[in-house]
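> run fold Molybdopterin molybdenumtransferase
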Amino acid sequence: MTGTDRRSPAEHAARVEALVAPALAARPAERVTVAALLAAAATGATLPRRLAADARAVVALPGFDNSQMDGYAVRAADLAAASPAAPVRQAVGPAVPAGVAPGPLVPGTAAPVMTGAPVPPGADAVVRIEDADPPTFGAGPGGGVTVTAVAFAAPVAPGTFVRVAGSDVAAGDVVVAAGTPLGAAQAGALAASGVAEVLVERPPHVLVLSTGTELVPAGRPLGPAQVRDANGAALTVGLGQVGCRVTARVVPDDPAALLGVLAEAGDADVVLTTGGVSAGAYEVVRGTLDDAWFGGVAMQPGGPQGLGLVTVGDARRVVPLVAFPGNPVSALVSFELFLRPVLARATGVAPAARPARRAPLAEPLDSPPALLQVRRGRLDADGRVRLVGGPGSHLLAHLAAATVLVHVPAGVARLEAGDVVDIWEIS
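> ok
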C-alpha cells in the first residue's frame, strides 16, 4: 500500500509507537540466574535487563546484629554511671573481627568489635574507638588488639551503632521491584539477600535488514561498485544501547532473498529494514512487502518511510515492520526520531527522550520551509551550535563528528546566527 499524502514527523512517530509498542509489551519473560547475569557482565557481553517480577530476599539484611563502627561492644547498663569525673573502667575481652562468630560478652568487660562484625550476645551497644580511653586498640591499624583495659567517660544508649538483623530487609521482603533495570546497586542487593534466580524481561530482538545488491558486510573486502554496510553497523550499536538483541543481515535487491531471510527470522520481535523504500527501479522492500504503508514524511533527511506488518518464521508470526531509507544519515535520523524512543520505553534501560534544550546558532542556515530539517552540529565553547557538514543524507562522517541534532521546524526557511534552535544531545 502506498501513501498518497505526506505525514508529519509527529504523526509518523505516533503510528510507529502504536504498531511497535504492543508487540514489545507481549514478549515473554525469561528466568535467569543471578550468577549468569554477573558472569555475562564480567565479560562485557551483556545487555541491560529489567525485572519482570518482584525479587524477594531469601535472607534478612543484615543477617545478624553487627557493628556500625570500629569500637567496643558493651552492655549499656554497665556504663549508665560513666562520666568524665568518674569514668567506668572495664577489662578488654576477646576481639571480634569481621567474619568471626563471637562468644557471649562477659559481664563487666568490653569486646573490641570491628565494622560489620557480629555484636556478641549480651552486648546491646557499641562505643566508637575514638570515644574510648585509650582511643586506639593499641598496636595501630592492622596490628590487632593489644590493650587490656579501657575506660568510658559517658553513658551509651542501648542500640547505639548496632545494625539490627533485618533492619534493612526482612526475609521475604521485596528487594528489587518488578520493572526496575538491573544496575550495580540492584545486583549487589540481589547477591546480598541470597536471591539466586530472577525473572527478567527478554530483550527485544530486532532483525536489521540492510537491503541493496551493492552492500557488503562490514569487514569484508569490496568488489567493483560495492560499498560496505554502514547502516547495519550503526543500527546494531544504537539498538544495543537501548537494550535490544540484534541480528543484522545484508539482503540483495531480490524479492526471493528478502522473503527467505524473513522466513528464517522466527523469534524476531521487530523487523527493521533500510533501503528499498523510495521511488527507484529496484526498491525491494517496497516492491515485495506491498501490504505495508510506504510514503513520505515531511522531514529532511529521512523522507521516504515504510510501516506495516510482516510474517516471519516457520510459525508464520506477524510482527511489526519499520522501514527506513537507505542513506546512512537518513536511517540514523529516522531511528532517533521514530524507533529509538519506543524501544527505550519498552526496555527501560535508557531514557526514551534524548536530552533536549535550546541553544543559539553560531552561523546562519537555510531550510526547506515545508519540512522538518534535522541538521548535525556541535556546541562550541560559548554554547553556540556550529553545524557539522551540510543537510545531505549521505554525510555519515559528519554525523559521526556531531554531538547534537539540530531541529529546524517546518515553516522556517532561514535562520540567522544568534537565532535559537531546539537541539537533541546525542553524545
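Residues 377 and 388 are 5 Å apart (CA to CA).
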